Amino acid sequence: LREDPSSRVAVETLITTGLVHVAGEVTTKAYADIPNLVRNKVLEIGYDSSKKGFDGASCGVSVSIGAQSPDIAQGVDTAY
User: Fold this and answer.
1) Per mean pLDDT, which range of 1-10, 35-44, 47-56, 60-69 is the poorest?
2) Cα–Cα distances in Å, from 36 out to 33, 68, 74?
3) CATH T-level fold of 8-75
4) pLDDT per residue as tens digits for the range 29-49
5) N or C: which end of the chain has fewer CB within 10 A?
6) DSSP codes of every residue in 67-80
7) Whose CA is closest to 46, among 61, 56, 31?
8) Greatest CA span in the chain, whole angstroms?
9) Is 25 helix (H, G, I), strand (E, B) or coil?
10) CA-based R_g, the chain, Å
């Protein structure tokens, strides 16, 4: 939001054994390095070893983020 206050984000996160999935729709002019952000956050909250059940340093990160659908964007744009 700092880079683009008009951003709209509808993103969900799912974590399974050794893998983080990040998926959804976004409208923004900003860039975010999602895999790096995910790994850093996982490490920050204490998951730094497979002995703990998850390791942010070695986990996989799957990113499936696309543009917000035109119908939804139009509805949001005209609502303001």
Assistant:
1) 1-10
2) 6, 23, 31
3) GMP Synthetase; Chain A, domain 3 (3.30.300)
4) 999 999 999 999 999 999 999
5) C
6) EPPHHHHHHHHHH-
7) 56
8) 51
9) strand
10) 15
